[in-house]
Design goal:
The complex is a heterotrimer of chains A (530), B (75) and C (370). Chain A contains 20 helices and no strands. By secondary structure, chain A is mainly alpha-helical. Chain A has three domains: 153 residues, no CATH class; 166 residues, no CATH class; 135 residues, no CATH class. In chain A, helix 3 packs antiparallel against helix 4 and helix 11 packs across helix 13. Chain A is globular and about 85 Å long. Chain B is mainly alpha-helical and 75 residues long. Chain B is globular, with a radius of gyration of 11 Å. Chain C has 370 residues and is of the alpha/beta class. Chain C has a domain of 255 residues: Rossmann fold (3-Layer(aba) Sandwich), CATH 3.40.50. In chain C, helix 12 links the parallel strand 4 and strand 5. The chains are: A mainly alpha (530), B mainly alpha (75), C alpha/beta (370). At the A-B interface, helix 11, helix 12 and helix 13 of A face helix 2 of B.
């Protein structure tokens, strides 16, 4: 069930109504039931995967909890009799017992994800190798259908398990509560990837609806609809025209495609997240923010701290840090410092961990080489710019432009276009084609074609542009306003009339200008593919 | 404590680490910095800092880092 | 005392706030409703058949005869002729490619307003066992007043990829027409001109039949189960209400009417004790001349053809079904006089347009240049 369907709206209204009618202590159970109903719309068969994930995570976390309790009481009882070394050894032994459960559960769940998501990718590669080796044998594809939200909920539950392992918080004793945390419906389609400690209170509290929460949540949902229906779904038509007709649309069109895709993806993904956060907000549940005006970033590294934050922080906390500060890594670093030199030795943990993380980020986004190359290129740019920082600083100091408005503007635009170039990798069919298209930017100068009606041939009419230009300007304006704190808070300080007019205008814009219904392909949220 | 300040200054010479107590929250040090701090601490104090210790509270100020190092050395 | 005063003041304020909100919501709703009427297609000069279903509601609903069915009823029968010649009061609840279930629900809806003596159903639609096209669904259903019957009709009619809710709130379907609005949309926002004569769409132009089509061979001539199920429902509905049901096949020579189909209808009529008239077999008796009596080479009859057919059918209705002659009834006369005037005025205007432009510009005809 997509967010931007009337079915979802009715579903949500039903959930809200019954939620409010139920006594407080049953409300979280109702949210769980609704989430499972929501999940059924994407195929009843898929329920098995999400259930296995929540249940196995529950079991493992309970085991971890038990071992931790055992350890605590043992250490307390034998406080006097144990020497420091003995205590250390005991702790290490208990940790490794815990680790076994952790690893087992992670293998199972990441295993499910990997099998469902990457089997066909592996088969394609094996077939490629077989073909290159001259063999006629080809393996058949499995064509697994990815269960809804599996990439998101797997990461979310594994984050929970690792946190329990790290004793950040105790394990949840009620398996159904953990099941709700795993399956809570607003986060299933495209995240955000939430953290248990941030949700546990509100998610199970069954707070009653308040006017404030409901109106803030509704506004957020409305804004999400606007981004998604008025901007993203409309612009997507032009993007797909460009990327699917590569013989025709080269040169400047590639740049146009990049630009349009940047806006489309932003409007689509942030719009979807706005809806998810808004829905949760109605129930008084604070989801993680997933974006912080990413297109205003001044470097790629900063961009990734502000784009899809719940995913990048997951990778940072559960992958980058553990790998880069692990014992083998530090030993390797020491070894390199001794035998190769300080320069490399210091960098080796960061470099290796970054490469692993970006490879995984790439493949998380899609089982194809495009995404791997995309991830690694991101990594490359980040590391290169990290190395160049001293150089930049010298340059800034000499030219004294370091902080001028125009220079910051330049940095923002540079980051925007750099990211747009990289992002193109997930548009075109394969890596080779993408690079061929890059090259046409330089070999085919056809700028004038755009103004000689080229823009009108992309599947958008004059009227579409008449809608898009102000809508995107509004998007920009809201982002700019957002720098001074929550836009909705700023708006709520305005007189009632103004506020109502704004809401109603946005509602009408969605209703009338939205690209939905007959004549529009109601496309899925781009990010729910992952 | 001086050793820690030295490590930090090696990364960002222009920051007053003695008084700043929001290194992570204000994005003064990033994840790359944290990893090199940990690797340096590992050398200087011969302790292992597990990944679960990497939370903003432990890295927001030189004092916090110092407290973490002391705690880990005692264990 | 003081507390009470504060309380009552508070109550007053709350009251005021509530009223303000109520006013805001009402204004918002009003604007949306207005926008909805603006955005809906008006079907006045182009595709007038889109207005047929809704025009019924403006009628004084006292008809002895109701037609249901597709274009073969709304183009081929003229209620005004039936009135002029026999004093029969009739209305055609026809619409473009009206499918059997739609006929059933339209009849059911009609029966909530009035009880005719005879219902005539054109059987061509039986060849469609499932919903065909969104556009035709819209032409039939959008004009229906919102009621439980309409919702049932939508449920039975909608294609898989159509959304139910957009029939309840048509703005969800037509919102993107904002970029195609014409002066006509503004002109007819509140009230549309009447386009039909009791459901009859008049066309005076002529396009003779040049070739008589041979039916392509079909794999299966059996009408579908769904079609029959709804025909059964129509039959039952009429029986339960004591209404005579007549099945007809209108004398349009295209789409092709197979003899295998005809046999099924004969059998069905016999089994259910109904009258089935295939006018295709009676064209000579009726006097239809396909070189002058059709405006699109045989698909639909034009005015001249419709008048001949109505005259012929009217005699059957009068002689064999005893439909009353209301011409001397003052109440009916007043109503029908206006209709007759409108009928001849339109006829005249159509001839004028034909002379002026060479085609019926504002009566849904395509320009010959296209």
């Amino acid at each position: 069930m997509l967010f931007t369907t009337s079915r979802f709206i009715f579903f949500l209204l039903g959930v809200i109504l019954i939620y409010q009618l139920l006594p407080q202590k049953f409300r979280w159970i109702w949210l769980l039931i609704s989430s499972y109903i929501f999940y059924c719309f994407s195929g009843i068969k898929h329920l098995i995967y999400i259930t296995v994930t929540s249940f196995s995570t529950y079991l493992a976390s309970i085991m971890l909890d038990r071992i931790q309790k055992e350890q605590a009481s043992y250490l307390k009882e034998n406080k006097e009799s144990l020497s420091r070394e003995e205590r250390k050894a005991y702790k290490a032994a208990m940790k490794s017992r815990q680790r076994r459960w952790l690893v087992l559960c992670m293998l199972l769940n990441f295993g499910i994800l990997a099998v469902l998501k990457y089997t066909d990718f592996m088969i394609a590669n094996i077939n490629g190798i077989l073909g290159a080796a001259g063999s006629k044998r080809q393996l058949a594809f499995m064509n697994f259908v990815l269960p809804l939200g599996i990439s998101f909920y797997t990461f979310q539950t594994m984050g929970y398990l690792i946190d329990v392992y790290r004793e950040k918080y105790p394990a949840e004793k009620n398996p159904f509560k953990l099941a709700l945390f795993t399956s809570f419906f607003p986060q299933l389609i495209q995240g955000p990837i939430n953290r248990f400690d941030e949700l546990k209170e509100s998610l199970f509290a069954g707070r009653k609806l308040t006017i404030n929460n409901v109106s803030f949540g509704t506004q957020r949902i409305l804004w999400g609809f606007f981004k998604k229906l008025v901007i993203a779904d409309r612009l997507l038509v032009a993007v797909s025209t460009i990327i699917h007709n590569t013989d025709e649309y080269q040169g400047v069109y590639v740049l146009v495609g990049m630009f349009f895709y940047a806006i489309t993806l932003y409007a689509d993904f942030t719009g979807g997240i706005d809806i998810a956060i808004g829905v949760a907000e109605i129930f008084g549940i604070p989801f993680r923010e997933n974006f912080e005006r990413p297109f205003f970033s001044k470097s790629i590294a900063e961009y990734w701290r502000r784009w899809h934050m719940s995913l990048s922080s997951w990778f940072r906390d559960y992958m980058f840090y553990p790998i880069s500060v692990s014992k083998p890594m530090l030993d390797l670093s020491k070894f390199c410092r001794k035998h190769v030199g300080d320069w490399l030795g210091k960098r080796i943990p960061i470099y290796l961990a970054s490469i692993i993380v970006w490879f995984t980020t790439g493949i998380w986004h899609g089982a194809a080489w495009n995404f791997v190359v995309w991830g690694l290129l991101n990594c490359l740019v980040i590391l290169v710019s990290q190395e160049c920082t001293p150089l930049y600083e010298k340059f800034h100091n000499r030219l004294k432009v370091g902080n001028s408005f125009w220079y910051r503007m330049f940095q923002v635009l540079r980051t925007f276009w750099l990211m747009s170039f990289l992002r193109t990798l997930d548009c075109y069919q394969n890596v080779g084609l993408t690079f061929r298209m890059y090259s046409t930017i330089f070999t085919r100068f056809n700028l004038m074609e755009l103004f000689r009606g080229g823009l009108m041939k992309l599947g958008l009419t004059r009227y579409d542009y008449i809608v898009l230009v102000p809508a995107v300007c509004l998007l920009l304006l809201v982002s700019l306003t957002g720098r001074k704190g929550s836009v909705r808070k700023q708006l709520s300080a305005k007189p009632v009339m103004v506020r109502y007019l704004v809401y109603f205008a946005i509602f009408l814009a969605v209703l009338i200008l939205g690209a939905y219904g007959v004549g529009y392909d109601s496309s899925q949220f781009i990010y729910s593919r992952f | 404590m001086d050793t820690i300040l030295e490590i930090l200054r090696g990364l960002h010479p222009d920051i007053d680490f003695e008084s700043c107590d929001s290194l992570v929250d204000d994005k003064i040090i990033d994840s790359f910095d944290i990893v090199s701090i940990i690797s340096d601490l590992n050398d200087e104090f011969d302790i292992t800092i597990p990944a679960e210790e990497i939370v903003p509270e432990n890295f927001n100020s030189a004092k916090a880092i110092y407290a973490m190092v002391e705690r880990l050395m005692e264990e | 005392m003081k507390v009470k005063r504060i309380m009552s003041k508070l109550k007053f304020l709350m009251h005021k706030k509530f009223l303000a909100n109520l006013a805001a919501v009402s204004i918002a709703l009003l604007i949306i409703i207005l926008l909805q009427s603006l955005l809906m297609p008006k079907y006045v000069t182009a595709i007038p058949e889109g207005n047929l279903v809704r025009e019924y509601y403006d009628e004084v609903k006292k008809h002895d005869l109701i037609f249901i069915g597709d274009c073969e009823v709304f183009s081929n029968f003229s209620p005004v002729t039936l009135w002029e010649k026999y004093g029969i009061t009739s209305y055609i609840r026809g619409s473009a490619q009206q499918l059997v279930w739609q006929s059933y629900y339209l009849l059911k809806e009609t029966l909530t307003y009035e009880k005719p003596k005879v219902v005539v159903f054109n059987v061509l639609a039986l060849k469609y066992n499932e919903p065909q096209k969104e556009a035709y669904n819209r032409l039939t259903l959008d004009g229906m007043k919102l009621s439980p019957i309409k919702l049932e009709a939508v449920k039975a009619s909608k294609m898989e990829d159509e959304s139910f809710i957009s029939y309840v709130f048509p703005i969800l379907r037509y919102h993107s027409r904002w970029s195609e609005l014409t002066a006509e949309d503004f002109k007819y926002i509140f009230k549309r001109d009447t386009v039909s004569h009791n459901g009859f769409l008049m066309r005076v132009d002529v396009k003779p039949v040049t070739t008589v089509p041979e039916g392509r061979k079909l794999a299966d001539y059996q009408f579908g189960e769904n079609s029959y199920a709804y025909l059964d429902k129509i039959t039952k509905l009429c029986k339960d209400n004591g209404i005579e049901l007549i099945l007809i096949k209108s004398p349009s020579i295209y789409p092709y009417w197979y003899k295998e189909w005809d046999e099924q209808m004969v059998a069905y009529a016999e089994k259910n004790n109904l009258r089935y008239i295939n006018f295709l077999d009676l064209t000579d008796e009726i006097g239809i001349d396909y070189s002058t009596d059709t405006y699109d080479a045989g698909l639909h009859l034009n005015l001249s053809g419709a008048e001949k057919l109505s005259d012929y059918f009217g005699r059957i209705l009068k002689d064999e079904y005893g439909l009353e002659d209301h011409r001397n009834d003052e109440e009916y006369r007043q109503i029908w006089e206006k209709k007759v005037d409108f009928y001849y005025a339109m006829k005249e205007d159509q001839y004028r347009e034909l002379k002026e432009y060479g085609y019926l510009k504002s009566y849904g005809a395509a320009s010959p240049d296209n």
